[in-house]
UniProtKB/TrEMBL annotation, chain B:
Keyword Nucleotidyltransferase among UniProt keywords: no
Key words of the record: Phosphopantetheine, Phosphoprotein
Protein's recorded name: Acyl-carrier protein
Residue intervals of the Carrier domain: 1-80
InterPro entries associated with the record: ACP-like_sf, PP-bd_ACP, Ppantetheine_attach_site
């Protein structure tokens, strides 16, 4: 049985969708087989072949603090969050570091992107655009002071958020996690799915007519709590969250694999990690979008997976009621799954005629696809599945019993850093980057970017048939990722493809591509979207392309929290390895600087007008970009394949003091917390740190926070502590710079960067001198995000 | 519109909108073969482009018509008003 300290329970639920504005209303309407799908009046449907959607109808979304500062996606999420906290008997957390927020989203603040573009480029819309705003604003609303992050895996994001919540609790990083997903209905996804001919003009009909999806919107929140914490406060307990499985198809950017083998693997992992039998699962809330490709792949995968062991499993898709709520889908469906479990009631898929039922029976045999009306059924465990663009598969199990969850089974394993891939404005490989460092190369202007060329593809053997599909972000990510694999001498084969996963960290992800798409449809109308461009709008497209190109089929998650995402990708990768999920992980940080990104920075008054260097007390920073990928694997795995080891990942930590999203001032002490947390996690004392790779970029407000925190944490030691700042060379490349700081630390520890310019902070001010790095044994790496979050990682020899 | 002009317009579209390298794209190069690697998403874009620019619908048209710039141009020639 799952040991008590590994048990995660659900203590609160919140939901808002087209079927209802709270859990009770939504559940009751669902029991009455009501669908929220109707003709949309909120968007331009001129010349569009489909005009149905499942929209939220709620006039109290603005009853929150500062509604003008929040996108609809945040408002939906905060509404569901408040219901869930109230349900759980929880309130304000006073910045407690034990309370985390993890929210999944696909299109995030896309309505604010549209509003900015079509409404005179109002600067106030900018902070609402990225997905990262959602979790930050949720945390700000209830003062959650733990890890605050967003999952950007499109339509599987909601499910992954809940899985990640349990991972954090089981790793001892949190007691309570507000987990879920949120997305709003908007022109970009509507036009995008139209361009793919993936909308059903008659409304989606999962596992039945299968002519396409119908888009919905909404948010779902599940309060996941450690058993210990829930017991202590005598909390309501809906159920247990057992294991989950996340995999990558390595197949196609929009279409699922027909053979469903990676969906099978995700379900296999979910069952295995739960410590249950396949036959314990009484109901499966399927992804069931209503497209032929998805539904047929799922039908076959369910038959194959459950087959003789569980031939009469009940299955349904609730998207026929809620529409496809994208990043919120998994969260809303988790709420349905948990309600199904606790009330022993399976919701149906709607709109089956007698003839339809017969036709389905031909395909699914005795498997129980519940149709039209709810079914009473005694349930022990339920499974909820979601899949996504980028080839992501996610499966999770909710249960009345504790199961036999195994986690942190590889906690004692040392994690080696064995490969580094760098794409930066000063070089597209580790070698050229190192040359640029040695020659003292600095930014040539206040806005710089990386440029991938055909030479990079040629060197890596990437064919035109593949790279022609990539957008800029995808180019940066695939080149850095493939270079990291090459550097690690890691060949992905059929045998090891599932033993390695990818976590992409990104600050703005597909925001630039979304803006590009918005420009197109503002001009051409919603009927004029591009099927070629639309996939790039999802934040996990870059990671998806890397999975397709490399063949990596294991864990695949894109996190988006601001610059620190490039460092959290390392921390979360450590956790995936410690959980025994994978033997190896690729942790990346990737962000792009295309013209719109510089424009947004300039509008926000954070872009410098000339080249500035860290600690220059400037009023802005150089806008940069890049992609840095780092291969990490257990020491045993590295040794077994004879890999060279740069250094070891010893620990990671996080800190948060809530300030408004888009701001940093006032959050200073949270960096101290992150550093201490990382040192503690690594079992390393402050005295053992030989150097710091930081995040200063020249912008005074930010650099002052960094300096002051180091002074508090390191005290007298600071005057002689070398600080390295990659942004002097590559500008503020957000997640790419955070990962680059870690890569530089690894290069120093690995002996490939023998000397380097270091900053020293003393009472007299900041000085700079070249130092030899050969004696370094342990290096601290730090990063930040607006809204008041900080992360730190300790790397050591 | 002359056949050559249609072909040249198509080639320009493949290069600008579908990321195809013009150096390897001849009028008879197989579009869905290994080198160019078009897929179902790209065919949606081709259909949309042909409809918008030549007023010819290729929705539901047999696969062989999409084989190369030559075959698409031939289809357009044959079916334009």
């Amino acid at each position: 049985m799952t040991s008590n300290n590994r048990r995660c329970v659900v203590s609160g639920l919140g939901v808002i969708c087209a079927v209802g504005n709270n859990v009770e209303e939504t559940w009751n309407n669902a029991l009455n087989s009501l669908s929220g799908i109707h003709k949309t009046t909120s968007l331009d449907t001129k010349n569009c072949y489909a005009d149905l959607a499942a929209e939220v109808n709620c006039d109290t979304l603005d009853d929150i603090e500062c509604p003008d500062e929040k996108d609809r996606a945040s408002k939906l999420c905060i509404k569901a969050m408040k219901e869930a906290l109230n349900d759980a008997g929880l309130g304000d957390f006073a910045d407690s570091s034990r309370v985390s927020v993890i929210i999944g989203s696909c299109v995030g603040g896309v309505l604010s992107i549209e509003k900015y573009h079509r409404g005179g480029k109002d600067v106030n819309e900018i902070p609402k655009m990225p997905i990262a705003a959602i979790a930050s604003q949720v945390a700000e609303s209830c003062h959650a002071g733990g890890i605050v992050t967003n999952v950007g895996n499109a339509c599987a994001a909601g499910t992954i958020s809940i899985a990640l919540a349990c991972d954090l609790i089981r790793a001892g990083k949190a007691d309570v996690v507000i987990a879920g997903g949120s997305d709003s209905f908007a022109s970009v996804p509507y036009s995008g799915f139209l361009s793919l001919h993936a909308l059903d003009e008659n409304g989606c009909s999962p596992f039945n007519h299968c002519n396409g999806i119908t888009l919905g919107e909404g948010a779902g929140i599940v309060i996941v709590e450690s058993l210990e914490h829930a017991e202590k406060r005598n909390a309501k307990r809906y159920c247990e969250v057992l294991g989950a499985g996340v995999t990558s198809d390595a197949h196609h950017i929009t279409a699922p694999r027909e053979d469903g083998i990676c969906l099978l693997e995700a379900m296999e992992r979910a069952v295995r990690n739960s410590g249950i039998k396949k036959s314990d699962i009484g109901y499966l809330n399927a992804h069931g979008t209503g497209t032929g490709k998805n539904d047929n792949a799922e039908i076959n995968a369910f038959l194959k997976f459950f087959g003789d062991e569980n031939p009469t499993l009940s299955v349904s898709s609730t998207k026929v009621m809620t529409g496809h709520c994208l990043g919120a889908a998994g969260a809303i469906e988790a709420v349905f799954s948990i309600k199904a479990l606790t009330t022993n009631t399976v919701l149906p898929t709607l709109h089956y005629s007698a003839e339809d039922s017969e036709a389905l029976k031909e395909k699914v045999g005795q498997m129980d696809y519940v149709q039209n009306t709810p079914r009473a059924k005694e349930l022990e465990c339920v499974m909820s599945n979601n899949v996504a663009f980028g080839g992501t598969n996610a499966s999770i199990v909710f249960s009345k019993k504790p199961g036999d969850v195994q986690s942190q089974v590889a906690k004692d394993k040392k994690i080696a850093v064995t490969g580094i891939g760098i794409v930066s404005p000063i070089g597209n490989s580790k070698e050229t980057y190192l040359e640029s460092v040695k020659s003292g190369k600095l930014p040539e202007s206040a806005s710089i970017c990386s440029t991938v060329t055909n030479d990079d593809y040629k060197e890596l053997g990437i064919k035109m048939a593949f790279y022609r599909k990539l957008d800029n972000l995808g180019q940066l990510q695939t080149v850095s990722g493939m270079r990291a694999l090459k550097d690690a001498n890691f060949t992905v084969t059929e045998d090891n493809a599932k033993q390695i996963g990818i976590i992409v960290g990104t600050s703005e992800g597909g925001l630039g591509a979304t803006y590009d798409f918005e420009e197109l449809i503002a001009e051409e109308g919603n009927a004029g979207g591009s099927a070629f461009k639309f996939p790039h709008t999802v934040y996990n497209a870059a990671g998806g392309y890397l999975s397709i190109l490399s063949g990596i089929k294991g864990y695949g998650v894109t996190i988006t929290t601001g610059p620190l995402s490039g460092l959290d990708s390392i921390g979360y990768s450590m956790n995936v390895i410690h959980d025994g999920q994978e033997d190896a992980m690729m942790a990346t940080g990737t962000d792009e600087n295309i013209p719109i990104i510089t424009e947004l920075c300039q509008k926000l008054n954070v872009a410098a007008d000339k080249v500035v260097e860290p600690y220059s007390e400037s009023s802005g920073f150089v806008v940069g970009d890049g992609s840095v990928s780092i291969i990490m694997e257990t020491e045993d795995y590295a040794k077994a394949r004879g890999a060279k080891v740069y250094c070891y990942a010893l620990g990671y930590g996080n800190g948060r003091k809530n300030v408004k999203y888009g701001h940093i001032s006032g959050s200073d002490e949270a960096l101290d917390i992150a550093i201490k947390d990382a040192l503690n996690n690594a079992g390393v004392s402050m005295d053992e740190i030989d150097a710091v790779c930081g995040f200063a970029n020249g912008f005074k407000k930010l650099d002052d926070i960094e300096k002051a925190a180091y002074a508090r944490v390191f005290g007298d030691k600071l005057a002689n502590l070398p600080l390295f700042q990659v942004k002097e060379r590559v500008g503020e490349g957000r997640a790419a710079s955070a990962a680059l700081a870690a890569a530089e630390a690894a290069l120093m520890l690995g002996g490939e960067l023998a000397e380097e310019n270091a900053y020293f902070i003393t009472n007299a001010g900041v000085s700079k001198k070249k130092v030899a790095t050969g004696g370094f044994k342990k290096i601290l790496v730090t990063s930040f995000a607006t809204g008041g979050s900080y992360s730190a990682v300790v790397l050591g020899k | 519109m002359a056949n050559e002009e249609i072909k040249s317009k198509l080639k320009a579209f493949f290069m600008s909108d579908l990321g195809v390298d013009g150096d390897v794209l001849n009028y008879d190069t197989p579009l869905f073969g290994e080198e160019i690697g078009l897929d179902s998403v790209d065919s949606l874009e081709i259909i949309s482009f042909v409809d918008d620019n030549f007023g010819v619908s290729m929705t539901g048209v047999a696969k062989e018509n999409f084989q190369s710039i030559d075959t698409i141009a031939a289809f357009i020639e044959k079916n334009k008003a």
